Amino acid sequence: MNAAIAGLIGAAIGAMAGIVGAFVTQYLQARAAARNWLRDKREGAYSNALRYLLRVHNKRSQLEFTEKGLTVPVLGEDVQKNGLTT
Q1: Fewest Cβ atoms nearer than 10 Å: which of 10, 63, 69, 73?
Q2: pLDDT per position in the chain (86 positions), as tens?
Q3: Residue 17 belongs to domain spanning
Q4: Helix, coil or strand: residue 73
């Protein structure tokens, strides 16, 4: 009887370890997937921001100097009324 009880306890411990392992694995995979999704969204946002910044930079008509000696790109009226369609 002692061997049967020991076997039952061992099987119960093994089953619990398997269940806990499955939950931990599922949690870690979900966390990694969420991290990858967030990274992809950030990459898309940065890519679009850079694309539009470069588009505006390439469409500038002239450079204007400020009082502090800085140059500021200025969009001409032709670009402003036509929009940034490229």
Answers
A1: 69
A2: 689 899 999 999 999 999 999 999 999 999 999 999 999 999 999 999 999 888 877 766 566 666 666 666 666 655 555 555 54
A3: 2-82
A4: strand
Contact partners, residue 78, CB within 8 Å, separation at least 6: 61
69: left (phi over 0), alpha (psi -120 to 50) or beta: left
Strand partners, 73: 63
Q: Which two tokens stand for residue 35?
A: 């991290």
The set of residues, in sequence order, having a beta carbon less than 8 Å from that of 65 and lying 6+ positions away, is 71, 72
The total number of structural domains that make up the chain = 1
Q: DSSP strand E in the chain: where?
A: 62-65, 71-74
65 DSSP 8-state letter: E
